[in-house]
Amino acid sequence: MPDLAALRSELPKTPDELLVTITSPDILGKDYHDSLKKTCDCLYGQDGGSVKHSCEVLLDMAWEKLNTGYWKDVDISWRYTYTVISVMKVYCQCLLLNQQKGEVSLADIMRSCDMGLLMGAPILDNILARMSSLIQTIFNPPRKRQCGDEVSEAKRLKVADVRIDGDKSVSRCSCPSLQKFKESYMDKHQAVIVTDAIDFWPALSSRKWDLDYIKQKAGYRTVPIELGSKYTEESWSQSLMTITEFIERYIENPAQVTKGYLAQHQLFDQIPELQKDISIPTYCCLGEEDDVDQNAWFGPAGTVSPLHYDPKHNLLAQVVGWKYVRLYSDRVTDHLYPHPNRLLVNTSQVDLEEPDHAKFPLFAKAPYVECVLGPGEMLYIPPRHWHFVKSLSVSFSVSFWWE
């Protein structure tokens, strides 16, 4: 039977310390807040069964509040509350699993962690993320890896079929100094492929990422998956599923017609185990602020990010597989026909793979550069530079955005 002492030590010492983030009990209502406090007191008395049921009732009510109206208009107290209750539920579930009562599984526990991370807000130094890492270690110890190349010869041939015009090829630079990177690329708003700068990442060396490794480290974790070929289509949707379900359904299943894509997700805040395998590139320190947004992009061959721009500096680091990228300067924005829809104003109306030249006549005249980005390479994309991205194989990329 695993020892849960380390997990218990992650909890604040008293119920009041766990509830300290609920600074606006009036927002929750007296009855709800009283039930929350009573449940917390029971947890610290280790009345596991009743706590689990009470947590589920409280979470259902918080879920309704979080899904009423626009997300930004919901009082932050409900997000803090959702996280607090998730912490209690997760600890209770661990007690039950440790007692082998058969009521919960490790998958149930990790889903509770992830729903708290996705729907709540970080509290107590991101306690849920710390608990999730510890729980994986306690109940799912690392197994010996069976390393293998996840990229088949057929996929290699697909990559080789992409022909890059030498005159339109993105320039390359081997691990430039900070000064050179700033003066030659950032200041001039010029895209560049940086090589030999992230080879030391464990994800590319000692703990090389492949599908087996990702399943082992994060298979139980619940994440939002985009369904459909691109977010500009009406059929596009999202669904929550575990990473193992996503891999088996959309990456390892070649007969799957619908594309699934883990896109622009802050996976590393959610799963610190994977964060340890990468690091923020030094070039990000050239920004005016310390904050760097890290997002994961993971999916099968054929996933597409339509032609669009981002407002921040962007380093797109390729960890697994290959991607084709085409870039247009912000100086030719008028040639790219941005969407009139305010929500999609940073996205082109042009389908780059099948452009309608009659409807968008200026598009064919817009100059561009292009590249195939491979493992261990980073593409610098200046702010507001338009870019189209397509995976040529199973691909895992990490983007770093900074201002």
Task: Produce a short descriptive summary.
Helix content is 35%, strand content 18%. With 403 residues, the chain is an alpha+beta fold. The strands form two sheets. The protein has a nine-stranded mixed β-sheet with strand order 1-2-11-8-13-6-5-3-4. A four-stranded antiparallel β-sheet has the order 7-12-9-10, with no helix packed on it.
Write up what this structure looks like.
A nine-stranded mixed sheet has the order 1-2-11-8-13-6-5-3-4. Strands 7-12-9-10 form a four-stranded antiparallel sheet, with no helix packed on it. Helix 4 packs antiparallel against helix 5. It has helices at residues 5-10, 15-18, 25-28, 30-44, 48-66, 76-98, 106-119, 127-139, 153-160, 178-186, 211-218, 243-251, 267-270, 272-275, and strands at 172-174, 192-195, 222-227, 237-242, 260-265, 293-299, 304-308, 313-320, 323-328, 369-373, 378-381, 386-391, 395-402. Helix content is 35%, strand content 18%. It has two domains: 5-139; 153-402, Cupin (Jelly Rolls), CATH 2.60.120.650.
Please tell me how large the radius of gyration is.
23 Å
Kindly give the count of domains.
Answer: 2
Q: Main sheet?
A: 9 strands, mixed
What's the CATH architecture of the largest domain? Answer: Sandwich
Strand order of the largest sheet: 1-2-11-8-13-6-5-3-4
Distance between the termini: 49 Å
